[in-house]
Amino acid sequence: MYGLEPPGGVWRTDQSCYEFLAAQCHPGARTLETGLGISTALFTIWQCTHTSVVPWRIEANRLFEYLKEHGIETDTLTVAVGYSHEVLPLLDPQPLDLAFIDGGHGFPLAIIDWFYSASRLVEGGVLVLDDLHLRSVTAGLVDFLTEDPRWTPLESTEKWAAWRRESSGPLHEEWTAQPFFAPYISQQV
Questions:
Q1: Nearest residue to 153 (alpha-carbon basis) of 163, 143, 144
Q2: What is the C-alpha to C-alpha distance for residues 169 and 26, in angstroms, rounded to an integer?
Q3: Is the distance from CB of 101 to CB of 131 less than 8 angstroms?
Q4: pTM of the entire structure?
């Protein structure tokens, strides 16, 4: 994995994020995650209809081994192996109740993951963005979500944040449909 190993052998976020996710999830909740870690096991335990997009098969194999060893059913879990910018556009565009963005952390991958994942969120669906301490994750995206009235902030820490989508449908639109996002540059080029 390019010399990058997760601390403690598994990718994780803060306990408060897991608690927030648990409060949002119920059996049958339609969830999607870019990345794979403790959260993926939890989505499976919570019996969500869950898809995880992860670039490396070895991570998927380790997860399935862990779940099998612990007698956890995996019939509601799908792991799509590949880079999210390639896999997400190919997934069945089923509506989502929750999207957890915690995949690639290089710019602009979080934005790409948001674009493809959040466009599938139903009205009232929840977006969770992890690793806010990384500029490559937050650059432009958090500003946009903060200013767009179609996203309501729910909870946040220095590490993660969550928003509720107040609309549904595709996210592609021209800047003229985004008057809230200060479309003009104040200096001349």
A1: 163
A2: 23
A3: no
A4: 0.87
The dihedral built from the CA positions of residue 17, 143, 114 and 189, taken in this order, carries a sign that is: negative
Please list the pLDDT of the chain residue by residue as tens digits (189 residues).
334 444 445 566 878 999 999 999 999 999 999 999 999 999 999 999 999 999 999 999 999 999 999 999 999 999 999 999 999 999 999 999 999 998 877 788 898 999 999 999 999 999 999 988 888 777 788 988 998 899 999 999 999 999 999 998 888 876 767 667 765 555 554
Alpha carbons 173 and 170: distance in angstroms, whole number: 8
Cβ count within 10 A of residue 159: 15
Note whether 102 and 13 are within 8 A (CB): yes
To which H or E segment does residue 86 belong? helix 84-87
Q: In what order do the strands lie in the sheet with 96-101?
A: 77-81, 49-54, 30-34, 96-101, 121-130, 160-165, 151-156
**What are the phi and psi torsion angles at 114 (to 5°)?**
-60, -50
